[in-house]
Amino acid sequence: MSTSTQPRIAIIGAGPGGLTCARILQRHGISATVYDRDASRSARDQGGTLDMHPGSGQKALREAGLFDEFTALARPEGQQMRLVGRDGRVLFDMAPPGTGDEVAGAADGEAGAAVGNPEIDRGRLRDLLLDSLHPDTVRWGRKLAHVEPLTVGVHRLHFADGATIDADLVIGADGAWSTVRRRLSDATPVYTGVTFVEAGLDDADTRHPALAALTGDGTMMALDDNRGFIAQRNSHRHVRVYVGMRTGENWHRDAGLDLTDEVAVREALLKEFTGWSPDLLRFITDTDTGYTNRPLYALPVPHTWPHTPGLTLLGDAAHLMSPFSGMGANLAMLDGADLARALIDAPTAIDEAVRAYEDLLLPRSAAAAEGAAEGIAGAFAPDSAAQTLAHMTRRH
Q1: Distance CA 58, CA 56 (A)
Q2: Is the pLDDT of residue 298 over 60?
């Protein structure tokens, strides 16, 4: 530990988990600096919508003192969940809590229990967290090149621009391809067998009323025979679309396909979905945003590492999993909150605090990752339509 009155804490990555950790530490008078590779907060799109769970994401926001601000930005109506058959017929439609509507389940017709997981766009959540931090907490344009051990518990961070800083605690919140993780673990993300091709509908209610109506206020899924469509309502009347396939990691190269050729990508996707409803195929043909290839990766389960003084991980750097857990961002924020709380409770004993945090983190992340692996296996299977319908009607 340094001889200064406070430990030097470096958080690598300005995602929800790292920012949550920094915010909670600052609320309790502990300084932390966040380093992010992006040139600025607006350098890239932050992705789709997130459902914040009471026991994880919402809990972290309460700890951060931001729950009221989150509530003002969140979209409770975004909890609507709809399952559609490949023929375009609605099989299941769960209204959000508090609407007075019932769940229509084709299998048993039972009403579903209300769940309090309001949605918020990733970008809005990140802005909320960024705006809560002290000025200059986040250092943009700092891509971490490697981590050098100096003495026990102290590491030097080397950035791509040649800058270096020393830290008593380096928190790897740097996502799927974490540079910090290389100092702790030999594990690397493995392709799940499923690729999403992202598309999008702008001003959907006006420009694409039929697709907007099919999507509803929340998430629409149409899954069958190792393929599927997932459409998510975002803020500002945007619908984000994921066209999913169980396919090879390099499916486009194997097909001789140039991903920048939108016409060729569209024709390839339409071929994959031969026989599906024309209503659903319009999610492919009517995109306003083109196509972005997004293969899905996950870390091995369980992912563990030997405790190393001065280093730890949170979020995707620690437990990258498929999005079918619904837990990725929620767990990252809970990780950040728990790590911050451990450091607050033991401000002069960093190593003991990190050990206590890792004792919480590792078992719960393994359980969530197992669930995510099961989720994606069921969603992209030969009988995924039946599996998904059975899962939804059991839960609701």
Answers
A1: 6
A2: yes
